[in-house]
Write a structure and sequence with these properties.
This protein is of the alpha+beta class. It has 7 helices and 13 strands. Among the domains are: 105-213, Immunoglobulin-like (Sandwich); 221-323, Cytochrome c-like domain (Cytochrome Bc1 Complex, Chain D, domain 2, Orthogonal Bundle), CATH 1.10.760.10. Helices cover 31% and strands 19% of the residues.
Length: 356
């Protein structure tokens, strides 16, 4: 639905916008219909059944008649059905917005009082601006450095909480080239109203030209993460030959990890982040908690780069790999690039979680 002739509505510029607008129109239509109907009934009944004289006595009604029962059932069932339509329609939109497609372009977003910091996988970084190509699925992974924010693009009809200490996801497919407002929709402090930005939707060619000349800097996020992996000394324990004090990270991303106590978790971005900032929270079965925390030593942007590095090594997400305690007398099987079943030599010491 195009609301361009009604300035109170933002432009419709994403795959979700028509569906959200249609649901909104249905809600407004139902509300307006019953508001007008009730107002008319009140006026008509007030006039028709007004008391004609001071001595007039109203005729008693049979409260248990069939007509009364039909009326009560009618005004209960109809609103129930209309409400169920609202719920079902909204649930379908919600679940569609909650499941990013596998081919979506990934972009990292960090909220901070009072700005948006954005990293593209190619290494380009932006502040309060987001450049994306038209007609491409875009997946944003969002987190906050301080308080709760909310990433809101009215023209896309998408809005997601940005929470410190965890990752949330938002996806959309922009359908129109143009510039669109970006807001923080969660009160986040004295300069909340100034936490704004612009989303630039570009043709594919223009986007590629911008990306190559947009300050990509010294390499991709994965390459920067590899440098941090060396700089922070991670490579000392997470040796790629399997001889380090900690588990080899080859192919760990997206795999199943067995923890102490028998719990099995997926090594996704949240797990990797938690293992960096709080390494004792989840310890891989068969290893001891000896890793120090890197909270305060690595910024949120750097943690994202480390995650991209871990994602880039070994088999891609979905490969049949797992991480857990080595069997007695056998080398632990940590996946190597291109061969998730290649065994490696046992680590010389036990250590905590896969991303530690």
């Amino acid at each position: 639905m195009d609301w361009k002739y009604l300035p109170i509505f933002p432009e419709s510029a994403s795959n979700f916008a028509p569906h959200v607008d249609a649901l909104y129109a249905y809600l407004v239509a139902v509300s307006a219909f019953f508001s007008i109907l009730i107002a008319i009934v009140i006026v008509v009944f007030a006039y028709k059944y007004q008391r004609k004289s001071d001595t007039e006595i109203p005729v008693p009604l049979n409260d248990h008649g069939a007509g009364s029962l039909i009326l009560e059932v009618t005004w209960s069932v109809i609103p129930l059905l209309l409400s169920l339509v609202m719920f079902g329609w909204g649930a379908v939109i919600f679940f569609n917005e909650s499941k990013p497609p596998a081919d979506a372009m990934e972009i990292w977003v960090t909220g901070k009082q009072w700005m948006w910091k954005i990293q593209h996988l190619e290494g380009t970084r932006e502040i309060n601006e987001l450049h994306i190509p038209v007609n491409r699925n875009i997946r944003l992974t969002l987190t906050s450095e301080d308080v709760i924010h909310d990433f809101y693009v009215p023209a896309f009809r998408t809005k997601t909480d940005v929470v410190p200490g965890r990752y949330t996801t938002e996806w959309f497919r922009p359908t129109k080239v143009g510039e669109y407002h970006l807001f923080c929709a969660e009160y986040c402090g004295t300069k909340h109203s100034g936490m704004v930005g612009t989303v630039y939707v570009m043709n594919e060619g223009d986007y590629e030209a911008w990306l190559t000349g947009g300050g990509a800097g010294t390499g991709s996020m994965a390459e920067k993460g590899a440098a941090l992996f060396q700089q922070l000394g991670c490579v000392t324990c997470h040796a790629m030959d399997g001889k380090g004090r900690c588990p080899n990270l080859n192919g760990v991303y997206g795999s199943k990890v067995e923890l102490k106590g028998g719990q099995v978790v997926t090594a996704d971005a949240s797990y990797i982040r938690e293992s960096i900032v709080n390494p004792l929270a989840k310890i891989v079965n068969g290893y001891d908690g000896i890793m120090p925390t890197f909270q305060g030593l690595a910024t949120e942007d750097q943690i994202q780069q480390l995650i991209e590095y871990v994602k880039s090594i070994g088999p891609k997400s979905g490969a049949a790999s797992s991480l857990g305690a080595p069997e007695a007398g056998k080398a632990p099987r940590y996946p190597l690039p291109g061969n998730p079943k290649t065994p490696q030599k046992a680590a010389t010491q036990k250590s905590p979680g896969a991303a530690q």
